[in-house]
Design brief:
The chain is built from 22 helices and 36 strands. With 982 residues, the protein is α+β, with helices and mostly antiparallel strands.
């Protein structure tokens, strides 16, 4: 009991001593003077903080310790403008019983840093996001090589963003804060390090660029180093040349060193003495014994290029088991504990010596030789895109899936864009290395490899305004023997082209290794060899894994991981040229397989269409609580995404797409164009034709003359009410009525070949041409719904004193589109309106005797305007009115009056009352329309002349022409025709 009491008293004394060193006390009570701001005026004890300020790239940076997280082994708050990051480090107590360094780096971005509450159900942050894992890797990679050999104690680094102004990416700040925290701690570590970000805008390098500057930059370079050696490189670029990249690296090194001196000064003020930790080192006795037993046999395995990956691994495992049996017979327990580490050290020594001295590799290749390549695009034809890529024993299957813009990934990062429309997901299943494993959640290695390949391919994707779809590339590693991430880049590039995505060119990647020979006295590099396209074992036994991806023009992504405590920058830059040569070899083979995006025009491939509507139309389509949208998705299996004025449809195949379009047409209708074919239903039958409801409730007249290529006596012989028909829009009359044709969709009796009309499309011929010319053209490419003024070719023809008014009304009401796909609202003349007009005309005719402009008296007992015998020009096509089928009156009185008027036509100005049928006049062209002319007849009177087929149409305003009055339309406007040469 007494010993326990003394131990407690001793611990309390040590604690008071520690607190006295960390705190300062003051009895200063002068309210007007406080010489030390860290000491309270009332005598309270306050924490003492230490601070360093410096400037890098015109940015003011601060390092502060002692105020926050004082119980951590080391803690530092690094600030740049409004962004502050806290980094803490701790180490586990006790001896280590392992043969590796259990270093854990966690990076956190909580929403409070930008003044927001999480949108999750629990209003808390959940599992680490991809970005947090990637930032953790950025911190981990440069600090791991600097721990001393044999230091296997557990170390944890926690980096948290305390506040963010959105201008700076906190990842680089967190790495520098972690380096400073390790310097302050008692953990043995070979730092400090400096990390800096470099951008480039208009060929000008920028140190510590802001997020806005990065969006304009063609380079995002993260560089970490010690005073004289490179530790880590991470690059995303837009095809930057190797020469420019080297210039950026040489600029980054001196800028990164500027972080080192302030950390040393801070550690001198507030740092702890480094603690003596037990290091797990291999004894000379154990190494000598294992070397004698295994070295020669290991050399025999490594000098035989016929061994494959698993055959070589099995042979090496047999050697290890043989050595284990010998050690067990000798009873050498100490060597048995470290046997795997000792055998691995012997393997590394044998391989490295052979490569440096003989320049010969494990599989017999030369140093700059790429393994045999095999690639195949379109291996899974039912998918949007797919490709299989083999390099040696490494095999990767890549697939591409296209989605709507709303399928983009939503990011919750405190900096950067809110969504991501291009995603590459990398998967490393256990079977690819013949192992049994458990599939879990996000894996740091998988996320890192996938992001590297994603950066590489992002540089060649078309811009969002050209290709707005969301793209997901999925990479499944089928077999792994080195650099599966670079194989993912190659396979992903081919899969994108197989999907028909208009990427500019192929992207390929290759991994470069390095084997160095060190001076045992000072540890300096005395010799080295650069290896192109390294194997998995060469990666494990070598010094670096330098992954470089790019196109023929330049580099798009880089990731450099270094195992020793740094590599000189000159050697790193020297690796760029072998990587470029190896990349060109791979690009040559990829281009032999597929060198341009495919045309996806088969009916079985998935389809994507983007349709443009007004927002009001989209609201009608979605329906209350999105009921209509869900109904379409459930019935067809397609996916609909609604944006601002756009509707994106993703369908499994062409037939599903057609069904979706048909359902949408029924709900909201489509924009009508001359030549478009539409499905409709007969709603009413008249003696002169039928009214068809189509395109979401719009109506058009199917005239009796447009029912068949053969004469039709009665409409009911061909159509019945409720019958479903496919009709073509052939025009629009001056009233805004839509004219439809059934015979235009039927094969002509005199032709053996018919035109294949795609129902629901604007024009099938246009669509097929687009499918040949474009890549992944939407099934129905509908232009913007913004109202646009009609051009001269789009205006309906109006004649006489009401011409300008008719044109204005047509512009206001809209009309059938002739060429443009702009949205219009048509003035539809319904069946009820036609019936009402017929009824009123009949009442007017029965109430009194009526005389039309031709002077012919009508029968009082006539019940329809068809009996009026009103003359209409045979070439005139004035739309849905019964006048079109009326016959010309041939009365002697009429001929005589026409002759008299014709004789006087050239001597005096023609008046509205004096113009009769058959009157010949000399008129001037007043206006030119798409289908005819407005003629000035003199005396303020104007008439209408319609172009005939194969007739002259190259008129100019002011031209004179000899015309004769051939008929009058329903408004009394004269319809004229050319006078034939007498």
């Amino acid at each position: 009991m007494m010993s326990l009491f003394l131990r407690v008293r001793k611990d309390q004394t040590l604690l008071r001593t520690f607190r006295t060193a960390r705190f300062r006390f003051s009895t200063q009570s002068d309210p007007d003077h406080n010489p030390n701001p860290s000491i309270s005026r009332t005598g309270e004890k306050l924490l003492e903080s230490f601070r360093e300020e410096f400037e890098i790239g015109s940015r003011r940076i601060t390092l502060e310790t002692g105020k926050i997280a004082r119980f951590a082994n080391g803690s530092v708050v690094l600030g740049m403008e409004g962004t502050k990051v806290l980094s803490t480090v701790c180490s586990a107590k006790g001896d280590s019983l392992r043969d590796f360094l259990p270093l854990t780096v966690d990076y956190q971005e909580k929403q409070f840093a930008q003044g927001l509450i999480p949108t999750t159900y629990m209003r808390r942050e959940g599992a680490p996001k991809e970005r947090e894992l990637l930032c953790g890797r950025i911190i981990d990679r440069p600090i791991r090589p600097l721990f001393p050999a044999g230091f296997y104690h557990e170390v944890q680094v926690l980096a948290s963003v305390l506040s963010s102004d959105g201008k700076q990416d906190p990842d680089v700040l967190a790495a520098n804060a972690t380096s400073a925290a390790l310097m302050l701690s008692d953990i043995p570590w070979g730092g400090p390090i400096g990390m800096v970000r470099i951008g480039r805008i208009h060929d000008q390098f920028i140190v510590n660029p802001t997020m806005d500057e990065l969006s304009l930059s063609d380079l995002n370079l993260i560089y970490a180093c010690t005073r004289d050696k490179t530790l880590m490189i991470d690059v995303q670029a837009r095809e930057i040349t190797e020469k420019d990249l080297e210039a950026g690296l040489r600029l980054a090194h001196p800028e990164a060193i500027k972080y080192i001196e302030p950390q040393i000064r801070l550690a001198a003020k507030a740092g702890k003495s480094k603690k003596e930790y037990r290091l797990s080192m291999l004894s000379d006795k154990t190494m000598e014994k294992v070397t004698n037993l295994a070295e020669s046999r290991i050399r025999d395995v490594f000098t035989d290029p016929t061994y494959g990956k698993f055959e070589r691994g099995e042979a090496l495992e047999n050697i290890t088991q043989d050595v284990k049996r010998v050690l067990e017979e000798e009873g050498d327990e100490e060597s048995l504990k470290v046997l795997p580490k000792a055998v691995d050290t012997v393997r590394k020594k044998v391989v490295r010596k052979r490569i440096v001295a003989e320049e010969f590799r494990l599989d017999g290749r030369h140093l700059d030789e790429v393994r045999p390549l095999y690639c195949e695009a379109g291996i899974l034809p039912m998918l949007h895109g797919s490709a299989l890529f083999n390099r040696g024993d490494t095999q990767v299957l890549c697939t591409v899936t296209l989605g709507a813009p709303t399928d983009a990934q939503h990011l919750e990062s405190i900096v950067g864009p809110p969504t991501k429309r291009f995603m590459l997901h990398y998967s490393f299943p256990p079977f690819c290395i013949n192992e049994v494993g458990k599939r879990g959640g996000l894996n740091r290695r998988e996320v890192g490899h996938g992001t590297l390949a994603e950066k590489a391919l992002l540089a060649v994707l078309p811009p969002e305004d050209v290709f707005p779809y969301t793209v997901r590339v999925n990479s499944e590693v089928m077999a792994s023997d080195g650099s599966t991430s670079m194989a993912t880049v190659c396979g992903g590039s081919m899969a994108l082209m197989d999907a028909g995505i208009p990427v500019r060119e192929h992207v390929a990647g290759v991994s470069v290794g390095l084997v160095t020979e060190l001076d045992p006295c000072n540890g300096e590099i005395t010799g080295y060899r650069i290896l192109t396209d390294i194997l998995g074992l060469e990666d494990h036994l070598g010094d670096i894994d330098f992954k470089i991806a790019g196109t023929r023009k330049g580099v798009t992504a880089i990731q450099l991981d270094i195992k020793p405590a740094g590599i000189p920058l000159d050697i790193v830059c020297e690796c760029l040229e072998p990587a470029r040569k190896g990349r060109l070899q791979i690009l040559d083979r990829m281009e032999q397989e597929i060198n341009a995006p495919r045309n996806k025009n088969d009916n079985n491939s998935p389809r994507i269409a983007i349709l443009k509507y007004s927002n009001d139309t989209l609201r009608r389509l979605i329906g209350p609580m999105a009921v209509l949208k869900r109904k379409i998705e459930e019935e067809t299996g397609a996916r609909l995404s609604v944006g601002d004025g756009t509707l994106t449809i993703v369908a499994k195949n062409r037939s599903v797409m057609d069904k979706v379009i048909e359902m949408i047409d029924f709900i909201v209708g489509r924009e009508i164009e001359v030549g478009g074919v539409y499905k409709g239903s007969v709603t009413s039958i008249k003696e002169y034709g039928a009214f068809v409801e189509f395109n979401g409730g719009q109506q058009g007249l199917l005239h009796i003359s447009e029912l068949s290529h053969r004469p039709v006596s009665q409409v009911s012989d061909v159509l019945s009410i409720g019958q479903q028909v496919s009709v073509m829009c052939i025009g629009q009359d001056f009233r805004g009525n839509i004219k439809l044709s059934l015979k235009a969709t039927l094969p002509h009796p005199g032709k053996s070949e018919t035109t294949d009309v795609d129902e629901g499309s604007v024009a099938s011929a246009k669509e097929k041409a687009k499918e040949k010319a474009n890549i992944w053209t939407p099934v129905w490419n509908v232009s913007s719904t913004k109202e646009q003024p009609n051009s001269a070719s789009e205006l309906p023809i109006g004649i006489g004193g009401e011409i300008l008014q008719s044109i204005a009304e047509s512009d206001k009401a809209g009309g059938v589109k002739i060429k443009s796909a702009a949205s219009q609202t048509f003035l539809i003349r319904s069946v009820a309106e036609c019936d009402e007009e017929e009824k009123s005309n009949s009442e007017n005719l029965s109430s009194k005797s009526t005389t039309v402009d031709n002077g012919v008296q009508l029968d009082r007992k006539s019940k329809s305007r068809r009996s009026q015998n009103v003359v209409d020009s045979p070439s005139s096509d004035s739309g849905p009115s019964p006048y079109k089928t009326a016959k010309k009156s041939k009365l002697p009185m009429q001929k005589e009056s026409c002759k008299e008027a014709g004789d006087k036509g050239d001597k005096a100005a023609v008046t509205a009352k004096g113009l009769k049928l058959g009157t010949k006049v000399t008129a001037t062209v007043y206006q030119i329309r798409a289908h005819g002319l407005v003629l000035n007849l003199g005396g303020g009177l104007r008439g209408m002349y319609r172009f005939e087929e194969n007739s002259k149409s190259d008129y100019k305003v002011g031209d004179e022409m000899r015309v004769v009055c051939s008929s009058f339309n329903s408004k009394g406007i004269p319809v004229l025709s050319l006078v034939e040469d007498e």
